[in-house]
Amino acid sequence: MTTTATRPDAGRARAAIAAKTLRTDRWWFPPLITFVGLTAWVTYATVRVFMHKWFFVEQYHYLTPFYSPCVTDRCGDAAEFGTPLPSFWLIPDAAFTLPFLLLFRLTCYYYRKAYYRAFWLSPPACAVPDGHQTYTGETRFPLIFQNVHRYAFYAAGIISIINTWDAIRAFHSPSGFGFGLGNVVLIVNVVMLWAYTLSCHSCRHIVGGRLKHFSRHPVRYAFWGFVSKLNTRHMGLAWITLGTLALTDFYVMAVAANWISDLRFIN
C-alpha cells in the first residue's frame, strides 16, 4: 500500500492555474450553434403562432401543425374539434395543445442539456467552469417542474395522434381523394414526430423500465428494444423535428398565401 509519506507528490502544493479551462479546442462552438439554432426556431414559431393567417389550405385540407387542432373562431373549416375559444389575438389558435408541446420540449432530457449549456452556461461545455456561482440542480423552483416530463410525454403522444389524423385527413379534400407534395410533407413530419416522441427517455422507461424478467413480457421487450434503438438517436431526432415542423408550416403557409402552387400527383 502506498502511504502519504511515500507518494511522489507528497508535500507538494497544487499547481496554480490562472486559466478557467485548459481546453484548446473550439469548445464554445457547439453551444453557440445551439443558441443560434434554438433562438431562430423559437422566433419563427412565435411569429407564426400569432400571425393567425395562412395556416390552412381549404382546397386540399392542409393544416399546419402549429395550428392543430384549431379551436378559435378564426379557424373556419380547419376546426375539426369545434371552436370553444374566442378569436382574441393573444390566444393561439392551437391553445389547447401548444402549452403541452412546449412543456414536452422544455423538459426533454436532451433539450435541458442544450439550453442549459447554450443559454445559461451551466456549464457551457465539459471541463469549463459553470457560469453561475451556485448550483442547486433541479430541486428548486422553477426547475423542479422538469420532473413533469413523463406526464408531458403522455400529452405529446395524444398530440401526435391528432397530427396523424391531420395528415390522413389531408388525403380527403372537399373535391375527393387527392395526393400532392403537401401530403408527402405532412406525412414525413408526422413520422419524424412519432420517432422523436417514442425515442423519449420516459417512453423507454415506461415500456420496460420496471420489468424484472423480460422473458415473461416478450411484446414489451420487443417494443423496449425498438424504443432503445430510437433513444440512441434522440438528439438528432430532436433537431430533425424542429426542421420538419418549420418546413411543414412554411410549405402550408406558402400554398395558403398563393406564393406557390401545390404539386399534385392525383386530383
Structure description:
The chain is mainly alpha-helical and 267 residues long. It has eight helices and six strands. It has helices at 29-49, 98-107, 109-119, 149-169, 181-198, 201-208, 218-231, 234-256, and strands at 56-57, 62-63, 172-173, 176-177, 179-180, 264-266. The strands form three sheets. The protein has a two-stranded antiparallel ribbon with strand order 1-2. Strands 3-4 form a two-stranded antiparallel sheet. It has a two-stranded antiparallel sheet with strand order 5-6. A hairpin with a 2-residue loop joins strand 3 (172-173) and strand 4 (176-177). Helix 2 crosses helix 4 (149-169). The relative contact order is 0.13. The mean pLDDT is 91.
Walk me through the topology:
Layout: H1 29-49, E1 56-57, E2 62-63, H2 98-107, H3 109-119, H4 149-169, E3 172-173, E4 176-177, E5 179-180, H5 181-198, H6 201-208, H7 218-231, H8 234-256, E6 264-266
Antiparallel strand pairs: 1-2, 3-4, 5-6
Helix pairs in contact: 1-3, 2-4, 4-5, 5-8, 6-7
Task: List key phrases describing it.
two-stranded antiparallel sheet; 6 strands; 267 residues; globular; mainly alpha
Category from helices, strands and their pairing: mainly alpha
Report the portion of residues in β strands: under 5%
Average of per-residue pLDDT values: 91
Q: What value does the Rg take, in angstroms?
A: 24 Å
